[in-house]
Amino acid sequence: MGAIATEVVSGLAIAQDTRIVLTVIDGLGGLPHPKTGQSELETARTPHLDKLAAGSVLGLCDPVGVGITPGSGPGHLGLFGYDPVRHQVGRGALSALGLNFPLQPGDVAARGNFAAVDAQGCITDRRAGRIPTELSAKLCARLRAITIPGAECFVQPETGYRFLLVMRGAGLSAALTDSDPQTTGQPPRPIRPQQPEAAHTAELVNQFIAQAHRILTDERPANAVLLRGFAERPSLPSLTELYGLRPAAIAVYPVYHGLARLAGMTVLDTGTDFAAEVETLRKHRAEYDFFYVHYKWTDSAGEDGDFDRKVALLEAFDAHVPALLDVEPDVLVIAGDHSTPAVMGAHSWHPVPFLLHAKTVFPDQTTTFSERACMQGGLGRFPATDAMPLMLAHAGKLAKFGS
Amino acid sequence: MGAIATEVVSGLAIAQDTRIVLTVIDGLGGLPHPKTGQSELETARTPHLDKLAAGSVLGLCDPVGVGITPGSGPGHLGLFGYDPVRHQVGRGALSALGLNFPLQPGDVAARGNFAAVDAQGCITDRRAGRIPTELSAKLCARLRAITIPGAECFVQPETGYRFLLVMRGAGLSAALTDSDPQTTGQPPRPIRPQQPEAAHTAELVNQFIAQAHRILTDERPANAVLLRGFAERPSLPSLTELYGLRPAAIAVYPVYHGLARLAGMTVLDTGTDFAAEVETLRKHRAEYDFFYVHYKWTDSAGEDGDFDRKVALLEAFDAHVPALLDVEPDVLVIAGDHSTPAVMGAHSWHPVPFLLHAKTVFPDQTTTFSERACMQGGLGRFPATDAMPLMLAHAGKLAKFGS
């Protein structure tokens, strides 16, 4: 990342009674539909975003680096100003954060799946037919009966077939391989240490798995567990420590709450749709000076390969732009954590459209909000870690560097 | 270089049955002709490249860094994904690689010129009237009679007046100054150590030069040798180690074979023109998944200051574009190792046009292939080391970063 060092930006931070709203449209970037040659954003009717673009500065943002396809974690951390290569967060830690589980130093967390295995112990379904959260919660309650000498185990349900495992005890290490082979037709893999000091932890986790499989043996379809992403509690300086911000997060899904907490944001209670999120923003507008507002649904449509639904969801977002402006942010950013082109049905490495609106921008000549407009934008192509100094600057929250 | 760390990209590499073709047009970038205001690329009629540009993403590539004029070595290494500042390869090592000389650890290699000196020992021609390879080979055979106590000497002819000197022995060091003053009217300079531990090697090389001059004293025009670019064997991780690629190189001239071998590429036998190179590519298309194909002649025309010849050579390249596409590369890149504007008659620091064609590109709005079109391209301006992650990503050879 070629961006200015966080330490330099942090050293310039000053208090200023201004408000930043960073809106993250998940999986924002797309690719042209083979029939029309137009991307999701280019196809969508987005009059409010287009009007906003005309008075804003646009650009294309690389979340992690050119050519790198980001997961949700690194995609967000970059926009929050943290170099995602320097700050790598394991899936287990992300799950714990999402559930607001109070991970302590030394704890080891893993993301679990309830899965189905056949009589030979080979995986037939890595998600156990996507069992509902209610069943998962009952199974988690049964797994809490597991006792491992030398470690306390916490098992908490996430959404659907997902759960969180946390082990707490002396001398644990997260340097462990996954048991999830990420494919079917094979048995779950034994957990192995990646470093010698993790050998003891590997043994304890394998004991947990063996006991779990005994407990689940007569269950259908969820008769096995898969564990992956072993991680310890990550430690990032908060946005308050770095820039003196009072940051708040508005998001529907737990994993984004977890990411926001990593950055030291207060997670605000909200509803289950974007109208509720915008209402939460309006209600709390005076209490915080940095809001991260997350719009999830575009990514899901992209991952499903549903071009038309992604278009419709971009149009639905567009309808909320006036309400975002009504909050009178001094800086309003419309960004994405990564691209999810519907034609690929997956996250991709393509740079992500970025729009910055503030009284102090030099508007470029773009009059629409799209990938191609952003290619011509005044911000050019830049690493995501540039977003935070840009937002702070346009909010008047950075002092002069040098005399 | 602001690019993502090689280690990160390497860690994401996955196997995928796709093919990358990286075409390097040597000295591709140019400058406007003072009479027409159009560069070599803008003047050339390149219908195939222009058509390709319309379905591709373009940009401007800095081989080493903004303002830095690259030699052939760094210009290529950047495109191969190696930071050319971190991996500096001496001219002597490059010569050895080009001749496929088995340089061993501890060997010291230098690039030699046969030159002409007058009765006072002052250089009258640094290239001895560009003597032919046949004469150079005979002179090299005579120089092999030289014996130096404590070191074995290898002398091998390159093309024309060029030769390679390798010294092998205990305690040698390549930290030596050149004997070639890079100008006429002066005597060759004595070799001096750049570090104290190289004093012994300097003495041995000066003995070699003294003996060579005695042997050549009655030769005309080549009665002297000039040595430069003392270097030891460089060690780069191969593209196979880094990314699991099976890489092959197709180039006419030895120095490019040497650069390709540095990156661990297999050098394929080919003919003496670009048609032969494309035929070699076609023939071996199924055996490798990364091809570096080199087009030399544009650079020579640029160095000769021959604007019209460079234009004609760009047009000649253009005619081969359909044959390159016939190989059905999943990723086709048209790049250059550096600019060689004919109006300057030399390599230059100007950023180099870059075109990437793949099913997964978001085509920008450019419809021609030229410096000015690339200024408007969707890739923006980027360091050459971004090229490798870009090519790998578009070939589906990189996994997601983080969850």
Protein architecture, described:
- Chain A is α/β, with parallel strands linked by helices.
- Chain A folds into two domains: about 5-90 and about 235-395, Alkaline Phosphatase, subunit A, CATH 3.40.720; about 95-230, Alpha-Beta Plaits, CATH 3.30.70.
- Helices cover about 30% and strands about 20% of the residues of chain A.
- Chain A has an eight-stranded mixed sheet, sandwiched between helices.
- In chain A, helix 5 packs across helix 9 (about 255-260) and helix 11 runs antiparallel to helix 12.
- The longest helix of chain A has 18 residues, at about 200-215.
- Chain A is globular and about 65 Å long.
- Chains A and B meet through helix 4, helix 14 and strand 13 of A and helix 1, strand 13 and helix 15 of B.
Secondary-structure topology with pairs:
2 copies of one chain form a homodimer.
Chain A: H1 6-12, E1 20-25, H2 40-43, H3 47-54, E2 57-62, H4 72-79, H5 91-98, E3 108-117, E4 123-125, H6 133-143, E5 152-157, E6 162-168, H7 199-216, E7 224-231, H8 239-243, E8 247-250, H9 254-262, E9 266-267, H10 274-284, E10 290-295, H11 297-303, H12 307-318, H13 321-326, E11 331-335, E12 352-358, H14 371-375, E13 380-383, H15 387-394
Parallel strand pairs in A: 1-10, 1-11, 2-13, 8-9, 8-10
Antiparallel strand pairs in A: 2-12, 3-4, 3-6, 3-7, 5-6, 11-12
Helix pairs in contact in A: 5-9, 11-12
